[in-house]
Amino acid sequence: MSFTPPTADQILAMRVCAGIDELAAHERYAAATPDLVAAIAEGIGQFAAGHWAPLNRIGDTQGAAIGDGVVRLPAGFAEAYRAYVDAGWNAIAGPDAFGGQDLPFTLACCVMENLGAANMAFTLLPMLTLGAIEALKLHGSAGQQALYLPRLITGEWSGTMNLTEPQAGSDVGALRTTAEPIADGSHAGKYRINGSKIFITWGEHELAENIIHLVLARVPGAPAGSRGISLFLVPKYLVSADGGIGVRNDLRAVSIEHKLGIHASPTCVMSYGDKGECIGELIGLENEGLKAMFTMMNSARINVGSQGVQIAEAAFQQAARYARDRVQSARAGSADKAPVAIIRHPDVRRMLLRMKALTEGGRALLYYTAGQVDRGVLGDAPAQQRADVLVPMLKAWGTDLGCEVASLGLQVHGGMGFIEETGAAQFYRDARIAPIYEGTNGIQAADLVTRKLGYANGQVLMNLFADIASGLDEASPLAALVRDCMAVAEWMTGGASIDDKLAGSVPFCTMCAVAVSGWQLLRQARGAEESGAAIARSKRVVARYFNEQIVAEASGLRAAAMGGADVLYALDDTELVN
Ligand SMILES: Cc1cc2nc3c(=O)[nH]c(=O)nc-3n(C[C@H](O)[C@H](O)[C@H](O)COP(=O)(O)OP(=O)(O)OC[C@H]3O[C@@H](n4cnc5c(N)ncnc54)[C@H](O)[C@@H]3O)c2cc1C
Fold first, then answer.
1. What is the per-residue pLDDT across 83-128, written as a single tens digit (0 to 9) for each?
2. What pTM does this model have?
3. In terms of residue numbers, what domain contains 546?
4. Quick check: is 2 in a domain?
5. Nearest atom within ligand 1 for CA of residue 443
6. What residues are in contact with ligand 1 under a 6 Å CB criterion?
7. CB atoms within 10 A of CB 71
């Protein structure tokens, strides 16, 4: 499948939304000069288009397969992964003490965005590794960091995240995997891990030399629920003190799932400790695993929000190509009765412009969030809090728009979209997982209204709304949407019941995300104009369309956001399902 990297738009988003030039003014990120930013965006775009995009189709049609506990990928994946590692792309934002380049997270997002638009299923492999690096960087001991970080950062080893068990999905606290402390012998101080995990992304494969599983489990006597969860590092191959790869640990992939999409990503059922000899080491403190896991999940949630943008970009490009080639009917009202390419018809143009505006709006939100994360790393506490409230918006709305754009892309193809060979259907299938994993979008919205809305007595969100509203024409759709968001937030914090808040959480989350994106697109349009960027004209139109139509639509969600839970419970369970 061909993929043209959206480099100019990414550079604009990094410059205007993430404020990468300001970040580079800080000593820590001084290396992120405009030249380097452009070189990275161009380089990873070419790499993704040249090495990973050509494997997207075969990854879908052949997929990952398991035999005798060994997971195999179609031809070409091992070489493409090796090329990625050799080029150093995995190391962009890793700490330099362990071989990373210590560049802003914003640039790591640009790397992920390009790879994922070229091949979403494959990109889950480095994405999970980046999450493991983040967890070890912040919660690992000095010894664990020295032993495991260097080769996770190069990508020679990969990482996984093991939360889910059959009875413990959204309710992570229900997990039952156990960890018994080892008192003596060569593994004294470590733990014996025992249990099963399901749905583990890239849980087994042979593309990396070792796989570092981060596993949530309970130590003996741990409190019930999420307060009794600890995080363990469980390598596929045990690692000796000098970093050498040792014997195979007692863990295995039992099977891989047959899925709607992302077929090249092995989603594994994992068994730990069949022989009672699965060795793991504690990360951080006992019973504080969820805190460490949240670190990993925050970065992963941004990257999953990005997946919505990635799949939207890919689906848009495919649909735009098709719309230029496919000829059907003359333009309505035209004197010329010759049939035209479907891109000339108003409704196809509506679909394409909506796809483009949603994609660029999602990208603007992605890089705005990434820039706030980078400021948080530099010690800017308000930016960190703002990043925290943006993450659920990005994860939820970013992935919802991925599905919408992929669906529109299929529609642009007409019947050919429903036929697998055009590839439009693959985007539609691949996109559908993103609103589900990494905490469903319902759970993201709940996080926004139950935790984030209350940050600093609601001021974090209110300050964000005030920044969006600043300088806006009062009569503009965006000013109206900000007023709607504020009204919902005030209603939610002003005595609405928990059920009422949760009932309106998803529409509220969408309203907030659209408001931030509309604002950032307007800023991009101004920034492009001022710098004379070649995409200035296109950006002006996209920002106008987004604000006139998508922002206006989001205001219509106010009724649902403030509708309350009463109507949802007006039918009892039996009446509801009959
Ligand atoms: C392809 C794939 C890859 C995955 N990769 C990984 C991985 O690498 N590691 C890992 O640990 N897990 C992974 N998962 C698991 C994934 O994170 C979970 O599937 C997800 O968190 C939802 O859990 P669940 O499937 O049990 O759904 P449930 O928790 O059963 O949810 C079902 C529905 O109920 C809703 N719901 C549940 N509880 C609440 C509530 N309290 N309030 C409101 N609504 C609620 C949900 O929003 C959802 O709509 C993966 C899953 C898939 C399908």
1. 999 999 999 989 999 999 999 999 999 999 999 999 999 999 999 9
2. 0.98
3. 440-570
4. no
5. 47
6. 161-164, 169-170, 199-201, 259, 267, 433, 436-440, 442-443, 446
7. 18
